[in-house]
Amino acid sequence: MPAPLMLSISSWIMRRRDFVLGAAGLALLPAAMANPRLDSLTSGLPRLGSGEFRRWGFLVYEATLWAKINDLQNPPLALALTYKRNLDGAKIADASVTEIRNLNIATEAQLKAWGERMTQIFPDVKAEDCIVGLHLPSGAKFFFNDRFIGSIDDPAFARAFFAIWLDTRTSAPELRALLLKRPA
Question: Which domain holds residue 136?
């Protein structure tokens, strides 16, 4: 084979390889950038476990926890809930109040005030929507599909809200175990 033809084929192969590698990189870019805000929210926190929450056999959401495993009682920590069905925001707030009430860690006055505020904050969700709760020393901040939607600046609320998943008396002990599982 003549040298110029061989160089031409070699050059074509290299350009094709570069194109394929570049296209593969572009294909991966959306996954790498899928949740830039979540990455910044959880910066410095190790990703712990994740699991599914089911009610009456129906998958309601997938949960993922970012926290320092040895210090779950102290913020910061983040919990992402990716919903798998449509739910009314007011029902999410009501369910949260019920769960906190069942843990017996808040007064009825606190539950009423927190419930009203959560009803204002939590939007209606549809499948694949994500609400992230960020537990900070000053309270809790909430994000919906990477957009800030509100906060409750009360450390007692933040402790009670995240206890829904992290307290040993949670109504979903299997999910708690999965959330607290150390990564391999």
Answer: 36-179
